[in-house]
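Anyone have tokens for Acyl-CoA dehydrogenase family protein? Sequence:
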Amino acid sequence: MTVDLTPGPVAEDLARRTARFVRETVVPVEERLGGVPGSDDVRLELQRAAREAGVFAPHVSPEYGGHGLDMRDRAFVFEEAGYSLLGPLALNIAAPDEGNMHMLEAIASPAQKERYLRPLAAGATRSCFAMTEPAPGAGSDPAALATTAERIPGGWRIDGRKWFITGADGADFVIVMARTSGAPGDAGGATMFLVDAGNPGMRIVRHIETLDESLFGGHAEMLFDGCTVPDDAVLGEVDEGFRYARVRLGPARTTHCMRWLGIARRAQDIAVARAAERELFGSRLAELGMVQAMIADNEIDIAAAHGLILQACADLDRGGSGAQSTSIAKTFCAEAVWRVVDRSLQICGALGVSGDVLLGRFLRETRPFRIYDGPSETHRWSIARRVVRRHDAAHAR
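Reply: yep, here.
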């Protein structure tokens, strides 16, 4: 299958304007704040500026105030937004809200779209997605889901503990996965629920200190203890939560790759600029073979990651699950982005580890991506298993 490596005309224009907006408006704020967004005032001001620049919400349909880009065209825009750690937040395409918007638009009822999707797409609210649990609960293996939801008169009671819930602090609502049938380890039996902030049965237990700090709202541990919700809080159908999670999972892991690829390009630009101006041993760094090798390897990693992202986007835009291509893209990109940032920091030497440039922040932010959205080892296991199944099917007698 041929994969188109060029954006459509609308996406090309939007990517160009996004690049200009991020460099002129967002990067100065990012550098002033050290890459950590801080207060909600920063988010609202950046999103106001993005609206004025006409680059806000490129991923949601025009019905909800967006540009309605498909996955392939998102790749070009999201990458430009990701050139700054705060760019995705400004365009309202940061995790977890971006993935939640995608899922709500795909499976929410009309009433739920008006109540939850519309204000989320406008940046008037924030959200989080509560699936991951402390051991032995759901993590890399979603089937280990231990949080339960039981029917009660007029609705459901949710009980369980979640952690590493990105964006939970200050979220206006939570999409929570709970088991409504079966037992931990069963492949089915999960349901998604929409839980409003302020529900007395839901609370943040603690804010988890992590290596990364740029994802707005941090990472929290949450307790659901007698959390009651009405029947209309069910998102989609009962017991179909794992199927719906796949609607979110493939696109969300791919858009993560797009955003982090922007940071890889930023790191490369910083390193190349330094190598071109810094003189050592009678020549510019850029003229030394070892530095040239690192610059070249960065370009190779960036180009390969971009191609794998577009392959995954093509699979998703055709309506496929994209399970294999998104796993391949996620594994390669998570490791390639880390390599690019690490090499770039090495090229810059002492400057790279200082606070004068943000390469140290980029390194801390990109390292967890090799764990979030599935560790590289889990994806490799899944990729290999699919290859073996394909071989077995082809050679079955």
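Strands lie at 127-130, 148-152, 155-166, 173-179, 190-196, 202-207, 219-230, 234-235, 279-280, 283-284.
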